[in-house]
Amino acid sequence: MEVDGAVVIEKVAGKSAVSRCFSKYPIKFIIPRKVGPSKTDAIWIYTLNYGGGIVSGDSISCELTVKDGCTAALTTQSSTKVYKSRGEERSEQLLEARIGSDALLAVLPDPVTCFATARYAQKQVFRVDSGSSLVLVDWFTSGRHGRGEIWEFNLFKSTNQIFLEDGHPLFFDTVLLEQGSTNSIIERMHGYQVIAMVVILGPRVKKVQDEVRENVKKMMSDQLYSPFTSTRGAQVNKNSDHLYAKPRIIASSSVFGPKGIGTVVRIAAMETETVYRFLQQQLASMEPLLGVPPYK
What we know:
The protein is mainly beta. It has helices spanning 185-189, 206-224, 272-282, 287-290; strands spanning 5-12, 15-23, 27-30, 43-49, 53-54, 59-66, 71-76, 80-82, 91-99, 104-108, 112-114, 119-128, 133-141, 155-164, 169-178, 194-201, 249-256, 262-269. Strand 1 (5-12) and strand 2 form a beta hairpin.
């Protein structure tokens, strides 16, 4: 299949290096010479879309290979903006990544922001070797608040799949939001403006997995027992003196895979900045691996 972009990272003189980088309209890869301390062995790849966003009919496919022992981070320069659709046309993005043994890939984008009437679908497929490590952040926002566009897009679909080296499926996940005839997306979101998922997999980020699970457990336990918050969502209970407010952020974590080798965290929040702060705090211990803390 013809692709619009491809990057290969392999060891050269004992350091992670880009051995191939190709991209064409409507995307571009930017690979800075240095991110963080020179002693850090990590390659950062920034993606951008010409014109600042994706338009109806765009179909973008990319391949990324991180060979044995290498470290790479894939990120964006800003939120991925999806412009309004024409008729039933939709925008599509596909990423296929292979991660070698003892290699680490961190996918750390800014959120997807779909404009009113937009139709957008993305799919990310990861093929991992024994000892591979992966950190994946996948998140999207409700739209352009400044223009009053809140959950006004027509379709958003995000699919993430992780396969083991023998082709055995390890993790499958799909989020689908589509305007319905009986109730709208905004009605189903119950006031939340951001949906996010974080996948943490593999031995090189085992410490991060353990920390995140404990932090999420403590955060939600503190909220559950606070007299000023309640997941029931009523702002004021007229029959009591207590004030009940919907939590600004809700998070849960669970393990997956043989012997719990992976962790998935799911998040819903009122504001984008809340999720940025969450990601900064929970992924801060990746700084020694990547050279800089994610979402700094």
